[in-house]
Amino acid sequence: MSDILTVGKLMSPPSLCLSPETSVRDAERRLGESRVTGAPVVDESGHAVGVISQHDLIVHLAGMTTSGEAGHFFTDVDDYRELAAVPADRSVTPVSEIMTRDVVCVDRSTSVVEAAVLMRSKRIHRLLVTESGVLVGLVSSLDLLAAVEAPA
After folding, report:
1. Exposed e or buried b per residue across 107-121, where buried means at least 16 C-beta atoms within 10 angstroms of its C-beta
2. How far apart, in whole angstroms, are the C-alpha atoms of residue 130 and residue 148?
3. d(Cα 152, Cα 124) in Å, to the nearest integer?
4. Could you tell me if residue 1 is inside a domain?
5. What CATH number should be reported for the domain holding residue 79?
């Protein structure tokens, strides 16, 4: 048996997964309730299609978009132009529109060292652990730090 520490030994089942149709408002609420800073976005078959983070949500919600800029209302009639200036409700946007689509996945047998190098090089804080493309767990930068702290 190998003494190499793998992500399969460190990973946790995802405490929260979101569907691509989840609204930004609901994602923000659910991240807060779960006390996590990000979550995988999975399709109906459990395949990871993206990752959403608090940072993504904050940047999206902070953007000031009007109904006209968002494509909700366009008109050339002067009497109605002010309607295009009405702020758009960005909280109803589905997370699929703002999530990171370039998900970084590893399998259970990936070494912790390999995972750390990958996370540092990609500048990410979580890796998705998949089996045959289906999400089975997560390993975070904090999980890796805990492994380093653990007595040998």
Report:
1. ebebebeebbeebee
2. 23
3. 26
4. no
5. 3.10.580.10
Q: Is the pTM of this model over 0.85?
A: no
- 106 and 48 in contact (C-beta within 8 Å)? no
Q: How many angstroms separate the CA atoms of 152 and 131, rounded?
A: 28
The pLDDT tens digits for 65-80 are 655 555 555 555 566 6
Boundaries of domain holding 67 = 7-149
Question: Strand, coil or helix: what is 51?
Answer: strand
What domain count does the chain have?
A: 1
What does the alpha-carbon distance between residue 43 and residue 93 come to, in Å, rounded to a whole number? 17
Residue 2 belongs to a domain:
no
How far is 106 from 99, CA to CA, in rounded Å? 19
Instruction: Encode pLDDT of 112-137 as tens digits.
Output: 999 999 999 999 988 999 998 899 99
Q: CB–CB of 39/20 below 8 Å?
A: no
